[in-house]
Design a protein that fits this description.
The chain has six helices and 16 strands. By secondary structure, it is α+β, with helices and mostly antiparallel strands. Helix 2 packs across helix 3 and helix 4 packs across helix 5.
C-alpha cells in the first residue's frame, strides 16, 4: 500500500484509527446519505500536464421538487462560488452541486443550467446553478480544461455507490497541507431523538497549512519530500455536507460552518488567498422543516467535525504523486506515516 502508484487504497480506519465515537455508514462516504448521488469526471493526463475535472453531487429529491433546504457559510471569500448569494438569501438549493477548477467554474455553471433545462418538464425562467472551485494551476497546465461534455458525464454518471477519492474529479489537481490531496469523503450515523440519521461530507481539499494527523504535525521536509503547492499562502477548500433530516435553513447554515471550521483540526491555515466555503443541504423535503433540538444539533455538529477531519486524511491517503512535464512534483502522503 505504500508508494505513490495509482493503486493507493488505504483509508484511515484501516490503520486502526478512528475519528470520534460515532460509527460511519456502510460506505463511510457522502453517498451513505439516502437520496444523494455522486458522479465524477477526471482529466488526468501526464503527457499534457492536465490535472483537473468535475465532481457532481446530485440530490434525487430535485427530480420531484423545485429545491431542497440548504445553508451556506464562508470563512474566507477569495474564491468563485457560483450561486452563493441566492443560497444565503433563500436557504434553498435548486440544482446539483458541482466542484471543479477556478476558470472552469463558469463553463461548468452554464453546462449545469443546460443539463437542468433539458430535464425539466415545465418552463424554467430562473435557475441558480451552484458551482464551487479550487485553484489547481500549480499542477495543471491548462487553465480551462473542463468542457460541457465533462460536466454532463459527471451528472449523468452519478450514483449511490462508493466515492472515488484522491486524484479524481474536481480534486484531480488539488494539493493540501504540503502534499498531493484531492477528493475525500466520510459519513456518520447520528443517534437523534427521533431515530438515527445519516450525515455525510465530501471535501475538495486544496488548502495551505501544516498537516496534523495521528496526534502530531507532519511536514513534507521531515519526510525528505518537497512541499507541494504555491510558496505563498493560498489555496481553497470546499466542504459539502448532506444529511437526511429536513431541518431549517438557519440550522443548515450553522452545520455548513462546522464543515469549514473542521478543516482547522487537520491544520488548515485559512490564509488570505484561500476560498474556504461550506455548503450543507438536506436530501429530504418536508411540508414543515424539522427544527433540531439543541441536543440533536450538537450531535450533528460533532458528526460533521469528525467526518470532515477523516475525509481530509482519506483524501491524502488516496492521492497519488504527480510529476508534471514542467518539473513540479506533488508528493503523496507516505502511508508509513500512519502505518508505523
Amino acid at each position: 500500500m505504500a508508494g505513490d502508484g495509482r493503486g493507493r487504497t488505504l483509508r484511515l480506519r484501516e490503520t486502526g484509527r478512528a475519528v470520534g465515537r460515532m460509527a460511519p455508514g456502510p460506505l463511510n462516504a457522502v453517498t451513505d446519505v439516502p437520496g444523494l448521488l455522486v458522479g465524477q469526471t477526471t482529466l488526468d493526463d501526464d503527457e499534457r500536464g492536465v490535472y483537473s475535472g468535475v465532481t457532481a453531487l446530485v440530490p434525487v429529491a430535485l427530480e420531484e421538487t423545485r429545491a431542497v433546504p440548504a445553508g451556506f457559510h464562508m470563512v474566507n471569500g477569495y474564491g468563485k462560488f457560483v450561486g452563493a448569494t441566492q443560497l444565503m438569501e433563500l436557504a434553498e438549493l435548486e440544482t446539483p452541486v458541482l466542484l471543479t477548477s477556478t476558470l472552469s467554474a463558469f463553463r461548468a455553471a452554464d453546462a449545469l443550467v443546460g443539463w437542468v433545462l433539458d430535464r425539466s418538464a415545465t418552463p424554467v425562467t430562473s435557475l441558480n446553478p451552484v458551482v464551487g472551485e479550487i485553484n489547481d494551476s500549480w499542477l495543471s497546465a491548462e487553465r480551462r480544461p473542463v468542457t460541457e461534455a465533462h460536466v454532463r458525464a459527471a451528472l449523468d454518471g452519478a450514483d449511490a455507490g462508493p466515492v472515488a477519492m484522491g486524484n479524481t474529479g474536481g480534486g484531480t489537481g488539488a494539493c493540501a497541507l504540503g502534499f498531493k490531496a484531492g477528493i475525500g469523503s466520510a459519513s456518520r450515523v447520528v443517534p437523534l431523538e427521533g431515530g438515527p440519521a445519516t450525515v455525510g461530507v465530501l471535501v475538495q481539499a486544496n488548502m495551505d497549512g501544516d498537516l496534523r494527523v495521528a496526534g502530531r504535525t507532519v511536514l513534507p521536509g521531515e519526510l525528505g519530500l518537497e512541499r507541494a503547492g504555491y510558496t505563498s499562502p493560498r489555496g481553497s477548500c470546499v466542504v459539502v455536507v448532506a444529511l437526511d433530516v429536513p431541518c431549517t435553513g438557519r440550522q443548515l447554515e450553522r452545520i455548513a460552518a462546522r464543515g469549514v471550521l473542521a478543516l482547522g483540526r487537520v491544520g488548515a491555515a485559512y490564509s488570505h488567498g484561500s476560498g474556504d466555503y461550506g455548503l450543507a443541504f438536506s436530501t429530504r423535503v418536508a411540508e414543515a422543516p424539522v427544527v433540531l433540538s439543541p441536543a440533536d444539533l450538537n450531535l450533528v455538529f460533532t458528526a460533521v467535525l469528525d467526518s470532515v477531519e477523516e475525509a481530509v486524511v482519506d483524501a491524502l491517503l488516496a492521492a497519488r504523486t504527480v510529476r508534471t512535464p514542467g518539473g513540479r512534483t506533488a508528493h503523496a502522503l507516505p502511508h508509513t506515516v500512519l502505518l508505523d
